[in-house]
Design a protein that fits this description.
Elements: H1 3-14, H2 20-27, H3 31-43, E1 63-71, H4 76-86, E2 92-97, E3 104-110, H5 113-122, E4 130-138
Antiparallel strand pairs: 1-3, 1-4, 2-3
Helix pairs in contact: 1-2, 2-3
């Protein structure tokens, strides 16, 4: 990874639909060089895919909730079973295996408190092995960066 690769990544994070012509102009390389570098970044797994940033509020999902989940066992089979189950919960926007007091940190995107209660009581608590759940409501998002820190 050199300065041009980082420049390409920064530009693509901000402008994911940029053409190779636009990308080449932005990072001061030829179009051919940009295409080659992007392909190399994709093949190496640095660029793992492309996605649109979705405004959840525009879809009626006005509540962002952070949920910690503690399992009754941290055995590999228990973690695998939880991860399989949580992948099926459409309200889960993110799921992270954690260190510290809880095993997982989830971010849910839900319509309102009633929707949160439904997901909590009818979905999350019914996943086998879930011992404890704690939720915190995000009042607003202060920083959400599509850009890389470097």
């Amino acid at each position: 990874m050199d300065q041009f690769d980082w420049a390409i990544l920064r530009h693509l994070r901000q402008h994911g639909r940029a053409s190779y012509v636009e990308l080449a102009q932005a990072v001061h390389l030829s179009e051919t060089s940009c295409q080659r570098r992007v392909k190399a970044l994709e093949e190496s797994g640095v660029i793992s895919g492309y996605a649109a940033l979705i405004d959840e509020r525009a879809l009626g999902l006005s509540l962002s909730v952070f949920v910690t989940v503690t399992l009754s066992s941290q055995a590999e089979a228990a973690l695998d079973a939880f991860e399989r189950a949580i992948r099926e919960v459409k309200e889960v926007a993110e799921c992270h295996l954690m260190t510290g007091g809880a095993d997982y940190l989830l971010r849910l995107a839900v319509r309102d408190v009633d929707d949160l209660e439904r997901v909590h009581s009818k979905v999350l608590t019914r996943i086998p092995g879930v011992e404890r759940i704690s939720s915190s409501l995000a009042m607003r998002t202060v920083v959400r960066r599509p850009a890389l820190p470097t």
